[in-house]
Structure formats: C-alpha cells, structure tokens
Amino acid sequence: MSKTILITGVSTGLGRAVARRALAAGHRVAGTVRTEQHAADFRALDPERARAFVLDLTEADRIEPTVREAEAELGPIDVLVANAGYGLEGTFEESSMAELRRQFEVNVFGTVATIKAVLPGMRERRDGQIFVITSMGGHTTFPGLAFYEGSKHALEGITDTLAQEVTQFGVRVTAVAPGAFKTDWAGRSLVRAPRGIADYDALFDPIRTRRQALAGQGIGDPDRAGDAILSLLDEENPPVHLLLGSDALRLVTAGRQRVQDDFDAWQDLTLSTDSVDGGVTVA
C-alpha cells in the first residue's frame, strides 16, 4: 500500500537513499532540504510523488507549518523518517559551548519538534510509524565526538520512552542506529572544531586523520539501509532499536560490554547504597 512519508534531510546521504527507495516502491515522499537548488534536485526524482520543502531545523517556528504544508500537498503523514542532522568532531575541551548548543538544536530539538508535529495526527488516526535516525554513537562512544554522541544518546533515550507511550495508539517507533556508511558524513557533513591544545595531539590527531581518509568509504550501503528501513513498514511489531551495519553491531556490542563490566565489577558498591530499613523501588 502506498504511504505518505516525510523524510528530513534528503539532499544527500542516508536520507536521500531512503527517499529514492521509497519512491521506487511507489510511496509519496515529502523531503526537507536546506536550499532551493536541493529542492529542485529532489523534485526531479519524481515530479508526481516527490515534494521538497526548504527547512532549517534550527528554525523551530517553521517546522510545524512545513509539516502542515506537506500534508496539504500529499495527505496525512503515515511515516516519519527523522534523519536530518550533522556531526561535530572535536575533543571535549576544544569544542565550544556555542557548538554544543547548535549540535543539540539541530540533532535533538529539531528532531523532537518534527516528531511533535506529526504525532497528534498519528495518535488520532491510531496508526503511524516514526523512524529516528540516531547512530551507533548513540549506544557507544569514540574519542573526539562527545557532543555529537551526546546528542545521539539523547535521541535514543527520547525515542525509547516515546515508543512506550504511543504503542497503545498504534504508533510504532524505531531508533535506527547506523554504523559507517558510504556517505559524506565524515567528509563535507562533519564540522570539525579547531585544534589548539597540544596535550591531545597524540590521542586525537591520528583519529582525525583516519576519519578524513575514510570519509565515504564505510562498509554500509545507503541503498541497502533504505531497503532495510522500508522493510519494517510491513512489520506489526518492529524493533524499538535497530542497528545497521556489521561495524555497528561489533562496536556497540563491545561498548555495551565495557559498561556491563563496570556494573559487574562495582556491584557491591552499587548495592551498598540501599537504605538499611528498606523502601520502595520505582518499578
């Protein structure tokens, strides 16, 4: 059955791939872009079923009107793919508070505002599906990506909670965490904070150099990722958390094991803080 799908960030990368695959499958796609040229390029993919809307997720007051405009042209939004975002690379100490605020403004606040714009209609219709594109960095961490991974950890927590709240209304929610794909995320789309503290050179310079060299060379195929996401449209109970890519599975598994190792090693100290006269647990 043909659906109306809203995808944020369809100019390049994973968003573009999901949009292409959705159009090829016969769906109607409303895509957000940053420029009029990108809008024209996207509409050219399918003049009948592709609609483009210029939107900057930092312009919070424009998000809901844009969603309403998309619905006026294509009908109620059946599926949201909240994909738009960007990466910020830099050591914690060398990255500014202004960069942190913008990272969360786009990746978290803009994404949440978009979900809020489509959710009431889905709840009222008792049907809908929301995909939030996070990152393997929303489950584990790597040096030099503290602010970016913080934003993705935030999205993972928000999405998990949202899924528990709206399943009763027939709204299905999935946080999709890709590994490294053949996109420009680590190239043109990655903002790099300037370096200035020599103490971090030995740790961070090789990491930055490697990321630059491997930009666009990830193991993941964006078209296959698009197909994987769209395959969940037919699932009555899709996963709340989905990893994409063998590297994501390997690195997230290792990262979660490090956390579990800490829990296990310090279990006695954890348990020592319970009140001696008992009490009530939250669940």
What does this structure look like?
With 283 residues, the protein is of the alpha/beta class. It is 47% helix and 16% strand. The chain is built from 9 helices and 9 strands. It has helices spanning 13-24, 36-43, 60-74, 97-125, 146-166, 201-214, 222-231, 246-265, 267-271, and strands at residues 4-8, 28-33, 50-54, 79-82, 87-89, 128-133, 171-178, 190-192, 241-244. The protein has a 7-stranded parallel sheet, with helices on both faces. Helix 1 packs across helix 7 and helix 3 packs parallel to helix 4. The radius of gyration is 20 Å and the shape is globular. The chain starts with a strand and ends in a 12-residue tail after the last helix. 40% of the residues are buried. The mean pLDDT is 95. Keywords: Oxidoreductase. It comes from Amycolatopsis albidoflavus. InterPro entries: NAD(P)-bd_dom_sf, SDR_fam, SDR_oxidoreductase.
List descriptors.
alpha/beta; 7-stranded parallel β-sheet; two-stranded parallel sheet; 9 strands
Fold topology:
Elements: E1 4-8, H1 13-24, E2 28-33, H2 36-43, E3 50-54, H3 60-74, E4 79-82, E5 87-89, H4 97-125, E6 128-133, H5 146-166, E7 171-178, E8 190-192, H6 201-214, H7 222-231, E9 241-244, H8 246-265, H9 267-271
Parallel strand pairs: 1-2, 1-4, 2-3, 4-6, 5-8, 6-7, 7-9
Helix pairs in contact: 1-7, 3-4, 4-5
Keywords: Oxidoreductase
Organism: Amycolatopsis albidoflavus
Family: Belongs to the short-chain dehydrogenases/reductases (SDR) family.
Taken in chain order, the helices and strands follow as EHEHEHEEHEHEEHHEHH
Strand arrangement in the largest pleated sheet: 3-2-1-4-6-7-9
Biggest sheet features: 7 strands, parallel
Q: What is the helix content?
A: 40-55%
Total strand segments: 9
The class by helix and strand makeup works out as alpha/beta
Number of helical stretches of at least 4 residues: 9
What oligomeric assembly is this protein in?
A: single chain
Family: Belongs to the short-chain dehydrogenases/reductases (SDR) family.
Protein name: Oxidoreductase
Keywords: Oxidoreductase
InterPro entries: NAD(P)-bd_dom_sf (IPR036291), SDR_fam (IPR002347), SDR_oxidoreductase (IPR051911)
